[in-house]
Amino acid sequence: IAEPDVTIVSGLKDMVVFEGDDVTFRCQVSHDNARDVEWKLQDVALQNNEMNEISVEKGKVHTLTLRKVTEQDIGTIIFRVGRHTSTA
Q: Domain 8-87: which CATH class?
């Protein structure tokens, strides 16, 4: 049985924040429990840790919160699910 092709329903939005603040990015996908999901900052894969909170709300809304951002966090955020991507 093939898994359904998960697509991005609502993509990322560009954000402007002050240094030291937290920022949250959201991306909604078409199916619950999507696998093969990845968050990146400047082509570096992000892991769930004390600085990056990665979670899923209501099964379809994937969120990334960057805590206490610094100048080093400036750049492109990439959300990928399967072969679909969204950037901000």
A: mainly beta
Cα separation, 31 vs 64, in Å, equals: 18
pTM: 0.92
Taking CA atoms, 13 is separated from 23, 25, 49, 71, in Å, by: 11, 7, 23, 19
Domains in the chain: boundaries: 8-87
Report d(CA 29, CA 9) in Å as an integer: 5
Query: Rounded to 5 degrees, what angle do the CA atoms 54, 66, 47 make?
Result: 45
pLDDT digits (tens, 9 = 90+) for 5-55: 899 999 999 999 999 999 999 999 999 989 899 999 999 999 999 999 999
Whether the pLDDT of residue 69 is over 80: the answer is yes
